[in-house]
Amino acid sequence: MKAVRNLATAFLLVVAIMAVFGWRWASDLPAPKRAGARTALVLTAAVSLAGITYIRTVKPTDSS
């Protein structure tokens, strides 16, 4: 179970890091597209970090 949690955390961390790089990429876009892209990137990063927080704080259930 710990391996699954670590894998999910790593995946969500990569998604959040990609959102940071996307922020830089969006700076080259025209203003209306830049605003939309950055809104999507902020939401993506926020949901990823919320997912990491949830994964790390929830207590695993005993399935035996």
Give an overview of the whole structure:
This protein is mainly alpha-helical and 64 residues long. It has one domain (2-57). 81% of the residues lie in helices and 0% in strands. It contains two helices and no strands. The chain has helices spanning 2-26, 31-57. Helix 1 (2-26) packs antiparallel against helix 2 (31-57). The model has no long low-confidence stretch (mean pLDDT 92).
Number of helices: 2
Structural class: mainly alpha
Mean pLDDT across all amino acids: 92
What can be said about the biggest beta sheet?
none
- The succession of helices and strands, N to C, reads HH
Topology (SSEs and partners):
Elements (H helix, E strand, L loop, with lengths): L1 H25 L4 H27 L7
Helix pairs in contact: 1-2
Question: Which key terms come to mind for this protein?
Answer:
single chain; 2 helices; elongated; 64 residues
Short description:
With 64 residues, the chain is an all-alpha fold. The chain contains two helices and no strands. The chain has one domain.
